[in-house]
């Protein structure tokens, strides 16, 4: 697994970083995220989980917890990984059961990462959807990932804040280096503002 730290995520995924940072600072953290992309999905999900557990984006603290979770695990962070095998209903049922246990965190947060949620069986996805719909007695948050959002149940997508990780990709062209830098900066700013605006609308729809 490629090691992604906070500073690197800030540079490589500025929109995701800004979305997560704004959510924490405004105390409006979504119940569920859906990351859509081809690279670093699980690594980014671990980072987002660390931020959520700490309710902070302070680099040193987040990276320390991130290392702890990946190396030693955390009983309040559950992972269902569908990268190499399908996610079964029993896996989801057990994960949801554990989410209802009391958190060891001071803020009471528990997180479930579902990597490649589109690789879940129909029964597993229906069970997971029920968990998304029914409020827990604890502060539970979900971070889902997929490389093909069209394969995810629309009812699951509609209950998540969707972040498209590929939305800021800029193709390289042979132009003057200074001009290229200015153009790339402008494009990134435009995409940044557009994506953040879209996320704000999603938050309003989810809260409604």
Features:
single chain, 208 residues, alpha/beta, Rossmann fold, 5-stranded parallel beta sheet, 8 helices, 50% helix, 14% strand
Describe what you observe in this structure.
With 208 residues, the protein is of the alpha/beta class. It has a domain at 32-43 and 75-167 and 192-207: 3-Layer(aba) Sandwich (Rossmann fold). 50% of the residues lie in helices and 14% in strands. The protein has 8 helices and 5 strands; from the N terminus they run ααβααβαβαβαβα. The chain has helices at 6-12, 14-25, 41-54, 59-72, 89-99, 122-133, 154-157, 177-207; strands at 32-36, 77-81, 109-115, 139-146, 161-164. A 5-stranded parallel β-sheet has the order 2-3-4-1-5, sandwiched between helices. Strand 3, helix 6 and strand 4 (139-146) form a beta-alpha-beta unit. Helix 1 (6-12) crosses helix 2 (14-25) and helix 5 runs parallel beside helix 6 (122-133). The protein is globular. The N and C termini lie far apart (38 Å). 34% of the residues are buried. The model is unreliable at 168-176 (pLDDT under 50).
